[in-house]
Design a protein that fits this description.
With about 70 residues, this protein is mainly α. It is about 85% helix and about 0% strand.
């Protein structure tokens, strides 16, 4: 359930960060970090979303396997 919880939190965080940073988020991150994943605001949000979905799926699969084994 830890992976599923992390996945839910990451998906929520993706939408919260996008809302919280508003229209100036892209400019701020580009100016602050210049290169790397943090400089691309849209890419950073995509990585957070994909990672969250993967963690959520892994958590659900492991939970289902655990129910069958026990």
């Amino acid at each position: 359930m830890l992976y599923a919880g992390i996945g839910v939190f990451a998906v929520f965080a993706r939408f919260f960060i996008g809302w919280n940073e508003g229209s100036w988020g892209e400019e701020y991150y580009l100016e602050e970090y210049e290169t790397g994943i943090f400089s691309d605001f849209g890419g950073m949000l995509t990585v957070i979303l994909v990672t969250g979905i993967v963690c959520l799926i892994v958590g659900i699969i492991v939970w289902l396997i655990g129910r069958r084994v026990e």
